[in-house]
């Protein structure tokens, strides 16, 4: 079963076509789309898709893209103060990778008919979200390690299943993103290991960072399943492959033995192996804090958005120069000149 190509399947606007005929055609397209999803086929940009599917993808991909570029800020805060040239070079490469991830994701959203400008305008106007995690401050160098280990670790847990997302361009973008995130996670783990095995003060710094980043990392997976607005439909469409709670549990199960290997403690007295479930039990998450951060009341929401707006304004000349270059080197009919 192959999805129907949008260009050949317009359902409205044909003169003399009755409402009943339009509805029947619409139902037929929908059946083809449903069958393609059921058969685990990829939906591609030119395929017909329900408008709600398109809107849901734009919402999720935009939030994801915004998270990548806002996520550059807490880490960039330490580039000038990295403890060695080696650490500085690694951190610069990581922050650049995040910009690249934003680029792949904005490009994936563009294939759904939304321009990058439009999405950035919505971000700057506070009309689209980015991940709650990036509204927390990076107070010490150890926070860079904790972000790599926990935040990138949570991001990988969430994003590996997205490589099997039903929408082709998003799934393919995720393959490369996940490879790079794996490198990021390892560098964070290694930086924390060095601190944990260092002086007493360095060990304490690593522990303090883990104490502050642990709970917000668990919140990254989104609200509990019974409060998640989009999960059921997103799973039916195979955009999401697992629920928020399933992925959160998977992350906890991976992180606990890693914390032990690091010689660091996770700040949860209720954390213990549950033989019957075959998983770690963990304590209650403070969902009031999560919703409060989403409303704009986290420690760094204002700072993150105002820096982003400023960066966009500062970059205006680059966009103008690129547009003017493209105009100069493009012929009357849009083809590039030799
Ligand atoms: N923060 O119905 P659900 C990274 C919102 S990338 C803010 O469960 P859904 C890389 C949600 O949008 C991190 N808002 O939503 C990196 C919805 O509001 P809406 C980003 C959140 O979509 C590392 C409402 O709550 N990753 O870290 C959050 O089914 C280091 C109800 O929620 C992605 O975006 C949250 N944590 O599930 C970069 C992955 N959670 O839209 C730099 C792709 C929920 O109705 C440095 N996204 N909300 O207004 C997803 O997998 C999903 O969108 C979820 C949320 C799982 C995040």
Automatic annotation (TrEMBL):
Gene Ontology CC annotations of this record: cytosol
Pfam family, one: PaaA_PaaC
GO terms classed as biological process: phenylacetate catabolic process
InterPro entries recorded: Aromatic_CoA_ox/epox, Ferritin-like, Ferritin-like_SF, PaaA, PaaA_PaaC
One GO molecular-function entry: phenylacetyl-CoA 1,2-epoxidase activity
Source superkingdom: Bacteria
Name of protein: Phenylacetate-CoA oxygenase subunit PaaA
Source species: Streptomyces gardneri
Organism lineage: Bacteria, Bacillati, Actinomycetota, Actinomycetes, Kitasatosporales
